[in-house]
Automatic annotation (TrEMBL), chains A, B:
Domain spans labelled Glycoside hydrolase family 65 N-terminal: 16-225
UniProt keywords, alphabetically: Glycosyltransferase, Hydrolase, Transferase
Superkingdom field: Bacteria
Positions annotated to bind substrate: W351, D352, K590, Q591
Active site: E478 (proton donor)
Glycosyltransferase among keywords: yes
Cross-referenced PANTHER family: GLYCOSYL HYDROLASE-RELATED, PROTEIN-GLUCOSYLGALACTOSYLHYDROXYLYSINE GLUCOSIDASE
Residue span(s) of domain Glycoside hydrolase family 65 C-terminal: 688-747
Glycoside hydrolase family 65 central catalytic domain ranges (all copies): 317-678
UniProt-recorded Gene Ontology molecular function terms: carbohydrate binding; glycosyltransferase activity; hydrolase activity, hydrolyzing O-glycosyl compounds
Family: Belongs to the glycosyl hydrolase 65 family.
Name of this chain's protein: Family 65 glycosyl hydrolase
Lineage: Bacteria, Bacillati, Bacillota, Bacilli, Bacillales
Amino acid sequence: MKTGWIIEDQGNRKGLWVNESIFNVANGYLGVRGNYEEGYDGKEPTIRGTYINAFYDITPIQYGESAYAFPDTQQKLVNVIDVQDLHIRIGEESFSLFAGQVVSYRRWLNMKEGKYVRLVHWISPQGKELEIEFTRMASFTTLELFVMDVKITRINCDDEVTITSGMNGDISNYTNSNDPRVASDHAKLLHVVHTGVQDTCLQIVAETSRSRLRVAATTFHELTPCIEGRLIQTDTNLTKEYVFPKGKEVLRLTKYNVFTDTRRHEQPELCGLEIVKSVVSKGIKQIWKEQELYLEAFWAMANIEIQGDAPLQEGLRYNVYQLLQSVGKDKYSNIAAKGLSGEGYEGHYFWDTEIYILPFFILCQPELAKQLLRYRYTILGEAKIRAKELGHRKGAAYAWRTITGQECSAYFPAGTAQFHINGDIAYTYIQYYLATGDEAFIAEFGAEVVFETARTWIELGHFDDGVFKIDAVTGPDEYTAIVNNNYYTNVLAKYNMEWAVKWYRQLKSTHPEAWASLCNRIELTDEEIIIFEQAAAQMYLPFNDKLGIHEQDDSFLSKKVWDFENTPRANYPLLLNYHPLFIYRHQVLKQADTVLAHFLIEDGVSSDVLKSSYDYYEKITTHDSSLSSAIYSIMASKIGYADKAYSYFIETARMDLDNTHGNTKDGLHMANMGGTWMAVVYGFTGVRIKEDQLVLNPVLPKAWEGYKFSMQYRQAQITVEVNTNETVLMVDAVKPIVLEVKGKRFKIQTGKIRIAI
Amino acid sequence: MKTGWIIEDQGNRKGLWVNESIFNVANGYLGVRGNYEEGYDGKEPTIRGTYINAFYDITPIQYGESAYAFPDTQQKLVNVIDVQDLHIRIGEESFSLFAGQVVSYRRWLNMKEGKYVRLVHWISPQGKELEIEFTRMASFTTLELFVMDVKITRINCDDEVTITSGMNGDISNYTNSNDPRVASDHAKLLHVVHTGVQDTCLQIVAETSRSRLRVAATTFHELTPCIEGRLIQTDTNLTKEYVFPKGKEVLRLTKYNVFTDTRRHEQPELCGLEIVKSVVSKGIKQIWKEQELYLEAFWAMANIEIQGDAPLQEGLRYNVYQLLQSVGKDKYSNIAAKGLSGEGYEGHYFWDTEIYILPFFILCQPELAKQLLRYRYTILGEAKIRAKELGHRKGAAYAWRTITGQECSAYFPAGTAQFHINGDIAYTYIQYYLATGDEAFIAEFGAEVVFETARTWIELGHFDDGVFKIDAVTGPDEYTAIVNNNYYTNVLAKYNMEWAVKWYRQLKSTHPEAWASLCNRIELTDEEIIIFEQAAAQMYLPFNDKLGIHEQDDSFLSKKVWDFENTPRANYPLLLNYHPLFIYRHQVLKQADTVLAHFLIEDGVSSDVLKSSYDYYEKITTHDSSLSSAIYSIMASKIGYADKAYSYFIETARMDLDNTHGNTKDGLHMANMGGTWMAVVYGFTGVRIKEDQLVLNPVLPKAWEGYKFSMQYRQAQITVEVNTNETVLMVDAVKPIVLEVKGKRFKIQTGKIRIAI
């Protein structure tokens, strides 16, 4: 085994369903949870799930009391056809880890090969001994493909072995009415329209209830030795039973499963058959090889090597790998809050993508970053419609949570009120531009998004006595809602409008035709730009002189501080134990808010303020949101709190592997996973993408001997190596770039920079 | 007909269902909407309803996203068994106002007799001529009784006449998912458990689905001439068919309907039979007589006579009459937002009772006022449980809307967040005490409520830099939500705590035993009282120096003023046309808030501030709530804006009769009806109940020649007569009282006071 590239089943997590999330196998299009092929004992809770990114149904939202422009339906990621079933019988006995004797059991994810393996040495109650090896893979090169492979070795016995391989279309989603973070209702979304056999392939076609999307699962079985199977067909299921005669040879079944859907494939049934044929003719070995090659290229850019801390190395790499597994690779999809690993947050896309996940893609996989940003452009039309519904005359109001752009949040104080998502999206377009210099993309997509979101601030805010104010919004911290002049929101709004002005003037000269066409299309005028400029310049940024910090919002610091001393550990997360009003009444944060603003936009904020702000807000932050620790780690690095930086980093790095938030069963915390990478690159290494240079301020955590990673900046490949003595930067660019390392500026095209630590 | 005592069917309202509300017949226990006995044409919309005050079922509340301590069920007033059906046939033709020729039609409510009459002269399509007179009454002396009477006169014909009289147990509630002010779901609440005949009475017994309350309707038919009928019985219905032979005599059917329920009657079936027997033996004439005597006594106290404005006289009297029809007369019930006239707001009790309705009862029917206040005492236990759910260590948090005390609000920003309801209840106990001097009631009930609500402010608020602040609440104005230091809330909290301190000290000496027992029971200590005193003394009351007004809340005046100029008339009420966030972002009021606070607690506020406040807030108030105009009328009187006082008064006086809010079909606006009375007594007459005197500042509206009304103050009967020259007060007391009239103080026991106008 290659050290640090393997995630092993630790068996010590709470419940098998936690491991189902951790051992999910996905490729951004398709995701399958790490369920046992043969199932459990009927007592262990499970969420048996297969998901296709952005494949959704529509469910009604019920309100006790509704109000104008509350969304009346919601989109929901659908648990699709289950092809995982593989049941093994030896003689009359069924293989189960809950019967007989488990001599040895190992399960692991190999992140270099992109494969999941479960290896069991088992003795049946009647003493028959088997070694069984299950392998699974969701292909990164053929996104529709989920391939399974099982090898069975008979030890000290030669009995007949039966493998029953199933496809099940009678699937429901998971619900829990007591947890606001998962769906409470509407489990049955998918209905089978067809089961059948064509060209030796099994195929189930199913349709969603309201969105009327169709999915086809097409499966081909390859057997060694080659035998014929018996088909069992029902209205919703297809099963093949293969009976291997007595003997000693190794038995093997390879199950090629292809998922196609009407969002991407015009004729999913036909297309499914074609893809199956092509992958079968390629063969399993070749498929595995392609996967390895894909990952080799990926890791060449994305790998962070740490010397001196194996568990963290493992966590960090796992988190980055999950980002790759989750990222949508077409214009229909993005990264859901739980990736494709579970149903938590119903497969919706949030600001998490922009603020926590895109930084990795921008610096390591800019082509995928571009794809993610294009997704926001494709839903701009929906955001403009939503703005109108919300009473705005112009602009775009992006949905707080959505799949195809419509608002799916059923609780506006911590949903629609989080208008900052518009600033987050604009900010990230700008970051992408600063990192890549890709002005063509801005002219084509980015400027329009930034102009429309800038308009939203003008609609939301107003000039009052020489300052521009934005009332009745909720910032990132959901433990305070519907406030005036949230610092985070205002500072992002200011940035958003400043760049709208900048790009308006810049594109006018660099891309005059695109500029003119855009301005004409969205009726953008010089007058509006002047208003953006004024609003940005006069933006109100609440500041408390006594504490020397920016106030989270107008009234935050005058509230009562939460009584942490008398809050038992069991009462966290607070949202599950206190009424929102009780929480809103106090100075208490679910997650970084002003501190996050200081990370995103540091220019113009003195280091004293950064530090005071950190000190103040940290004391009252619960980190009940998984979006918090990474930011506190980064800002601790910035301020020089090395110990805090490291301990927050640890929290992020193994949050899901160690199920520290207790809800990993519902899926992995994708934003936090992006945050782990950020904590190294933006935190320990102090990377900041500025308007005309890349800034680095590397430090080495005490516990480490060194670390190394790569990134791409303005088409330059930069490798950063930090060890106990020095930082070494290797640059390979097509034209000179400017780096500022520990305060020193370098203009460099190719070569090394060495700076003492 | 007696002028001013009759409300006639004007036929010009939008739809018959508006008249169903207006012509409801109720007595505080039982209410029947003014449906036609024979029904409509199947096309006219209708809400056919019969309600028993506080007779409810429980329905689940669905949330798109729920949170901790959101109520998961709601109570809902149940539409009970319908006994209204009377179908008349002459020959083969059925009487219907939608067929044949209506020669004349009149319908009226006689408020002196407490009777509703519908008189129709009708010619059938085949030319048969009938005069039909329907009479209805809900008895004020036998609350269970709803009696109907029909007289049929054959004109120019002698054909056989059939009357079919029905009782229907297959009843559903009205729902409309598009209007937050009525129920959106769960129509079928009632299920028949028995239909049958006993002792010549028909009886249907039905049960609610979840609350498992039972209601029995017991009916007896009295016929002239006496004939036998034919019974038609189904699982849910009982019908009697009476065939009157050919002839010329006047035909008459009297239908005695008695409703009994398990909330008030141990054996409703038995009890229903007994009551029916007793009322039948009494006979219809005697029942009508008793009703008249009851109303004679009522009007002796409650009548306001206006000289010179017949439509307003009618409206004013109608509104007062409806208060009597709606008021619960036992400890289980209160006054629902729509009384017993419709299903709007689901039969819930709100702060409306205390702030808008109790003033009338306190000064005109103190025994009923006491009953209403006792209701709050009976649900104090529920309020204490709710306080705990909301995270408070002690105190009582009254439900924003409820029947038996549990919170039924499914939208906390304009529900649970309106903590001011605790102050409103405390305030009204204090008002009752000041008006009646009934210290025994305070010792027994009032003090406990006031102490427990005082505790709630300590839980909600906190000391900050020498002032006491209350964060994250919503004031009366629902167009601004979850704010800090709402002036209205804070000023009532201050008052609440001041009186808690006062009564604590007062009862200690006047009722030492009751005091000691209470303090012991609720563990109230001197230390707590000192904290109440400090919090009251240091209460933060936001004030804006520039405008010279109290600010509605901390941040209200810094918001953008609503763009009234560009808001089309069709966009009101705003809540049906704008997202809450859009509304919350603006300076715009649904209803009086600070202005209401100034009415309730005027001491310590200068007349300049009162005036500036009125001027400022009036401009930005939409009066989208029916609770607004009355208060603006009263405060206009206070300030001396005679024209405004009068025009707001007109709006309240005929709000339902003229359906000015467009939703009278869902029931009458009870709070507004109380407000009309207040606009005369507190407004034009300037009545204020002070700690040691009653203050009056009468004026005569220009349009009137005079007005006259009575009230009771500290067991004194006071009649106030205002005419163009003078005000005459007639006092008849058991001991001297102090009156301050136009700034002059009088100590008087019996006699007249004359003051020039």
